[in-house]
Design brief:
By secondary structure, the chain is α/β, with parallel strands linked by helices. The protein has two domains: about 190 residues, Alpha-Beta Complex (Quinone Oxidoreductase, Chain A, domain 1), CATH 3.90.180.10; about 140 residues, Rossmann fold. It contains ten helices and 20 strands. Strands 4, 6, 7, 11, 12, 19 and 20 form a seven-stranded mixed sheet that branches. A six-stranded parallel sheet has the order 15-14-13-16-17-18, with helices on both faces. Helix 3 packs parallel to helix 4 and helix 6 runs parallel beside helix 7. The longest helix has 13 residues. It starts with a strand and ends with a strand.
């Protein structure tokens, strides 16, 4: 089967690999759509340190083709969305209603048992985030899939697997944006646009989008932004001007830049919340005045996967899509074949797409 494999830093290609059958508690998924996410690119360029070589892909939807021994929650023929964080149900975090922090999620490049089912040239290779679903097929833990209604477009369903859940969830679950509030979103790529959608769904009165790309600014308006800012000027001052000198109730950093975190914190009002969604380099840092934090009563929150309980949230977001409250179709700027993956990543780097999706 074909798969997109990162061989080394800045070295990836579409290659043929072999796939073993699912073991106990695992399922074989015939992939129908895989989103091209910035986290995939971060493994390619080394921002996220990962075991290589590895099959890429962590945002997708497909059809269950085979189930391993002991699988009970899904069956052959089910349409499923895949989660890159398992929900084991038994660990410390899962038992405390924090499955997005499931302790079975480990960066070892394998499935729950630490090994993968993929072989290249006869040697086992890693898979991204227990999935490696940028491939025609993948074997994944049952704890990483949830059945969804068969009426949904696979392209839309795929996006729920990462970008939509992370962005919308950041607003409505992590930050718990209140109706009538003011929100600023720094970085309006695929995830940032979904933060904007989440803030709109939550009832924010003013949503300020900050991005260098004029194309993304137009997209931001279409997804619910009321104001747009180009950060080549002083973005903090512009946010303060728009909010009457107060600052935004909620500021979201959706790039992964220490310097941008500092700007977000400054743009947040006293008593407000700064939410860190973007994944930065391991050696990146930000600095905040130790005196201002207690005096300003600002909160800094990390956002992992939009605080998702994916077994509940994936169907919920797709139901919002069905009701036309959540726009997933407009997020898909372009589709690609798996052989066009190099072009898809080039388009991602250039900022051409809200989301590119590989369709099989």
């Amino acid at each position: 089967m074909k798969a997109v494999v990162a061989h080394d830093i800045d070295d990836f290609s579409v290659v043929n690999v072999d796939l073993d059958a699912p073991k106990v508690g695992e399922v074989l998924v015939k992939m129908k759509a895989t989103g091209i996410c910035h986290s995939d690119l971060s493994i390619i360029n080394g921002t996220i340190r990962w075991k290589l070589p590895s099959v890429l892909g962590h945002e997708g939807a497909g059809v269950i083709e085979q189930v391993g021994e002991g699988v009970s929650n899904v069956k052959e023929g089910d349409h499923v969305v895949l989660s890159f964080v398992p929900n084991c149900g038994d660990c410390y975090n899962c038992q405390r209603a924090e499955p997005h922090l499931c302790q079975m999620s480990k960066p070892h490049g394998g499935l729950l048992d630490g090994t993968s089912r993929v072989k290249m040239d006869g040697q086992e290779i890693a898979v991204m985030s227990m999935l490696g679903n940028m491939a025609e097929y993948c074997v994944v833990p049952e704890a990483c899939v949830v059945s969804v209604d068969k009426e949904h477009d696979f392209k839309a369903a795929a996006l729920v697997g990462c970008g939509v859940t992370t962005g919308v969830g950041a607003a409505i679950k992590t930050a718990e944006v209140k109706p009538g509030s003011t929100v600023a979103v720094f970085g309006c790529g695929g995830v940032g646009l979904n933060v904007i959608q989440g803030a709109r769904i939550a009832g924010a009165a003013r949503i300020i989008a900050v991005d260098l790309s004029a194309e993304r600014m137009e997209l931001a308006r279409s997804f619910g932004a009321t104001d747009v800012i180009n950060p080549k000027a002083d973005s903090v001052k512009q946010v303060q001007d728009i909010t009457g000198g107060i600052g935004a109730d909620y500021c979201f950093e959706v790039v992964g830049s220490g310097k941008l975190v500092e700007a977000c914190f400054k743009a947040t009002r006293f008593g407000g919340t700064t939410v860190l969604v973007g994944v930065g380099r391991a050696d990146d840092r930000f600095s905040i005045n130790a005196m201002i934090v207690p005096f300003s009563s600002k909160t800094i929150k990390g956002c992992m996967y939009g605080s998702a309980n994916f077994k509940v949230d994936f169907p919920m977001y797709l139901d919002l899509y069905r009701q036309k409250k959540l726009d997933l179709d407009s997020l898909v700027t372009r589709t690609y074949s798996i052989d066009e993956a190099p072009e898809a990543f080039a388009d991602l780097e250039s900022g051409k797409n809200a989301r590119g999706v590989i369709v099989y």
